[in-house]
Amino acid sequence: MTRDDIPLERMAEVLDFQRGLWSTEGLQPSPVLRSEDGEHLGIRIASADWHVRLTVELHRSGWAHLFFSSPTHTAEEPRRIRSVEAWSALLDEAVSRASRLRLLPGRLLARTCTTGWLDWIHGELWLLPDALIRVRSGLMDSVANSASGSGVSAKDPYEVIPFDAESVRSAHRTNKVIPLAELSEARLHRGLSTSGMTATMRDGTPHKLLWLSTEPAGRLLRDRLLPVLGQRLTH
Question: Domain ends where: 77, 100, 123?
Fold first, then answer.
């Protein structure tokens, strides 16, 4: 991509305009930041109502980076920007996400998680302090996991991950956010090749999750759900 492909000065004008809007909305944006070599621009945004601070950077090459920072951790998300319109949309999206996002300790339970026998695309199953989330991966990940295993171990440490329930749900219809406090009952089952969980929420909503039996999801979920559900957990 050439220098002319990303009009950095025009992007800076958009950023400065958005900065004024954010200020009127009660946010705390920094001045527009520029690198000495003129190849980068960026901004930092904070709010007393947010759990994170947002930093947005854009390089002349067209790569943007979103940084969501808590006092102890930072999560980074790269994005490709090809137009002024895409840049403006990214700024709106980043601020909207920052208002909802938290950085939470999460434990990866499975990489082969599906939502039923007719769902062939694997996803990651994560255990957060107060929720279970399933995030769809893709076809190539599914093929790789089936061929060589997922590599997930019960000894894997917790990771700090960015969590935004609305973004998880809206990204794909098979994604799930299951608040543990809203579970009514659950059943864990283990098979020779496939294991899983069925659950019912307090409002009657059912959930079904499956994963390869070689993954540690079942026993890790049992340990976490027993204190929550007691006799309402079948395992």
Answer: 100
